[in-house]
Amino acid sequence: MDLEHAWSAALRTLARTLWQIEIEGTLLEPPTDPRFGDFTCNAPMRLAKQLRKPPRAIAEELARAVRNAGFPRLAKVEVAGAGFVNFTAGPEFLQEELARILSEGARYGRSTMGGGRKVLVEHCSANPTGPLHIAHGRQAAVGDSLAHILDFAGYRVEREFYINDTGNQIEMLGKSILWRLSDAAEPPDENCYRGDYIKDIAAELRASGRTDLEGAKRLGVERLLREIKRDLEDFRVSYDTWTSEDSLHKSGKVDEVLNFFNSWGLTYPKDGATYLKTTDHGDVEDKPLVKADGTFVYRLPDMAYHRDKYARGHEILIDLWGPDHHAHIATMKAGMKALNFNLVPMAEVRSASTAVPEQRPVAFEVLLIQYCRLLRGGVEQKMSKRAASYVTLRELMEEVGVDAARFFFAMRKPSAHLDFDLDVAKQQSKDNPYYYAGYAHARVCNITVKGLEDKKIAPADVTDGVWRGAYDASRIGPDEAALLKVARQFQRHLEIAARDLDPAFVAEYLRELSGAYQSYYELGKPDPGKKVLCDDEPTRRTRLAVSAAVQQVLRNGFALLGLHAPEKM
RNA sequence: GCCCCCGUAGCUCAACAGGAUAGAGCACCGGAUUUCUAAUCCGGUGGUUGCUGGUUCAAGUCCAGCCGGGGGUACCA
């Protein structure tokens, strides 16, 4: 446990003994101004009403108790402003943090906030009816980053892709392939897929000799799914499970759900279709489950699918959908409630062991990943799926690279529209946040290379290109301390990202940390005595240690977003 | 009509469970380099946080109502 957590726990204990209360929420925060010390606590103001005392009086009481309790590593505690209690830690605080970063390495920043709860992150789940395009790219980038973040935050994460390998759209895929097999200039159905890839599949189908609709559908799904998997793999997006909709039908799980609804009188016939009373659970209107022709509407297998997720023991179900699924959220929740799901907010899911199995609470969080606009030369690139003139994920990867693409997709709040400026993403300058952050990392790597060349670093102190020598922590100066203070915020940002299901906090943090290191590095320009590779050996070693720590934290952050940390630029 | 997202510096965006003086980058102006890689850094100009009320010791943040922009609203998925 680090100092911040230790102090937080101690403060909660003090509150219990002083006022017999439990303080909820965050207790210690980074102050807005370095003059306010290392941590600030605004609890006195929040407690004023409850305790019926002025905030300043509460703050004084708390500060006195802190002094008497003898908090470890505490240098100073004082009351300020309207009722803040500001804490300043002794130098050991950052010394220990530095040691922790270097010893924990790739694990530094990991949190236990998830408490091992089982989370299923289902994302992308594109229909195998065509190649992935950039909207899928954003979903995949956000989903995969989120999975990394939740894993790092202490959840047990499973990443899943749901394959819509049956139903109307697959029917259309089959027809499209058969159409391309014929001489017809126009498709038999206006919803047919017109992309050139259909022609390739048609050609392959012809070669196979099986030219019926079933054969076309099967080959189409198989081919396109393979393509999707390859795109995702190259985009560094990985999955633990691939669940097929068709398999849900074949196992009877879909019929089971329909029977459940029917037998409990939750459905009724209308115009030949079967409707579920979703308005009983908050939907704006009842929704059909079975069409008049007897086939299922996609939402029915979807409900069966989510029931299956639950049955597999997941406690938090996270779905990433496109914004066109907006209305589906209320319907799905209604369906799940009709299936007797005990839906609760994510923060309220407790460990499964404490709950009765049948009423085990489960969180269902849908993230609508907004579309993005592609800009080139400041002009929006219009996309039209019908004319098959949309930009594929593959094209994007080839044009701007996986790293820049993933950083761009991750850096904006997923629910907000994103302008993806292709020119900026390709630029190798400060404008491009990926290159900016990467440059800081590359600079640390380069210092090590340069140090070895100039014999300022002994080869024995370098492992895999990373400096791992001994250092004197007491030589940490103000500039190094400022850097370490930013570095230790990593876990905080990770936890916020996990709580809000938003990787943008990590992206934003990477900019902050890399910027801090750039500034630190530049100190050596006008004043060579401030270079990392300075002449004084003990100082040099300490600066190398601090640089290696920043390098490590940058790497950990990059990994959360699925990015490579460049070693040379 | 109903639902969701967004209105913060000229532009693109931050602001971490409501907290101390609303911050970055771009652009503009002025500086730093015979480089531990300038793909960089430092300083400056620039704000009635769309509007009006409300809650609160405290509101960019929460609530209500407007105004403006985007998206969604199938027996497609």
What does this structure look like?
There is one protein chain. This protein is of the alpha/beta class. Among the domains are: 3-90, Gyrase A, domain 2 (2-Layer Sandwich); 430-560, Isoleucyl-tRNA Synthetase, Domain 1, CATH 1.10.730. It contains 20 helices and 17 strands. It has helices spanning 3-19, 43-51, 55-69, 92-104, 134-152, 168-181, 196-208, 213-234, 245-250, 253-263, 299-311, 326-338, 393-400, 402-410, 422-426, 433-453, 478-487, 490-500, 504-522, 537-560, and strands at residues 39-41, 74-80, 84-89, 118-122, 156-163, 241-244, 267-270, 273-276, 287-290, 316-321, 342-343, 361-368, 372-376, 379-380, 418-421, 462-463, 466-467. Strands 6-5-4-10-12-11 form a six-stranded parallel sheet, with helices on both faces. A three-stranded antiparallel sheet has the order 1-3-2. Helix 6 (168-181) packs across helix 8 (213-234) and helix 13 crosses helix 14 (402-410). The longest helix has 24 residues, at 537-560. The chain is globular, with a radius of gyration of 28 Å. The model is unreliable at 384-389 (pLDDT under 50). The chain binds one RNA strand of 77 nucleotides through helix 2, helix 6, strand 8, strand 9 and helix 12.
